[in-house]
Fold:
Amino acid sequence: MSKDYLLGIDIGTSACKVAIFNKNGKVMASANGDYPVYYPHEGWAQQKPDEWWHAVCGAICECLKTGNISGEQIAGVGIDGQSWSAIAIDHEGNVLTDTPIWMDTRAQEICDRLNNEIGSENIFNVAGNSLQPSYTTAKILWYKENMPEVYNKIYKILQSNSFIAYRLTGAITQDLSQGYGLHCFDMRTGTWDEVMCEKMGIPVDFLPEIVACDKVVGTVTEEAAAQSGLTVGTPVVAGGLDAACGTLGAGVIHPGETQEQGGQAGGMSICTDTYKADPSLILGYHVVPGKWLLQGGTTGGGGVMRWFEHEFADYERMMKEETGASSLDQLNEIAEKVAPGCDGMVFLPYMSGERSPIWNPYAKGVFYGLDFAKTKGHMVRACMEGVALSLRHNLEVAEEAGADAEVLRAMGGSANSLLWTQIKSDITGKPIVVPASDTATTLGAAILAGVGVGFYKDYDEAVSLTVKETRRHEPSPENKAVYDKTYQTYLELYKSLAHMMTAK
Structure:
């Protein structure tokens, strides 16, 4: 039986996505598997990796069934995953505790202490990233200080994609693109810095071997095949960070090309072929060899609209039964009736603290400019504009660091909104291209597998075959002029409130 297809797995925050692609990037079958985020205390956000695995197996089985595809037809498997996990496993591969995820900020005090003891500049000079509680580093040390019974049993620390790769193959690895979560990772050389490991108190033995993202790390075991429906012996590559795989799946593989992310979280990833770091941003390796990604990662993205819809769209959900229009489409319609700049209303989209460029885990969402003339449509548009303003903030910091974004390539659920995408183009002043597939992240994971097993000769061929453009948005100079004033208000608003957004 010919091996005509590639399988991509995405370990997202609220669900896993699995998709099977043909060589031209066409989705032959797709499925999702849900799992919860647990919030046991303020500032905590954690998940159960075993629930990821069960969801992945269910979604793969569903894909194979609905697509009428045999496991034998899968040429390779690629995996991408959310950042900054700290999955502690023992020698038998058992998960020792729930893993804090990227939204978790419980380790702020540890970061403050290490930045003082080691020196924030010294850490940044090695890692290319400032030490923040969202990253993996502080989470490992949190185990040490707060869960010694777990810490003393740790054999290895894994990331989300490497955990799924381990469950599929039995291989324990660390891909290059996820290295940025650890501040004993040398961002210039892509290797573990043992001196910094020692300074931070992280045993280097906890850290798996670093491998290229497209490296075949193993093949599907009998046990994994029985659970997932895949065929024994199917090659699996290391995979990489979800944002980096999404960047690849959006067609960003050359310097200056930029991916704009509008999933649960928001942000951007600028491709560069030279080391460019800024303490306010996030630097990581691209999944494409020889490239870095200078990233801005925000907590406000599509999740802002999902929150708004959940809390304030009872009427729209009721009307859906009559009109057939989704609640989000209806919210889009009322937002479109409001003028750019939202009649002076501004929204700070810091709904779970904020990451770059302000790095304040205590930041809060704010609606400014409410009065009796404002409508629900104003609130919806302000949400959209607020997310776009945070994107502009990150892009401007990146430009100051020497990484210029030319054209943005949009991915994530928010790219499906023509209004929201146009708002982002107008606010940033950048053209935005929307690729045909809204499965950019799983496509990127599949492309890694394709290159790794020789399905594609290189990344240029893979992108030329799989990434198609559906539409392009050009910024309106007239709207940009309005938004320039809004942007100044946005910056001043946070600046004036920052002293209140601190630990209680």
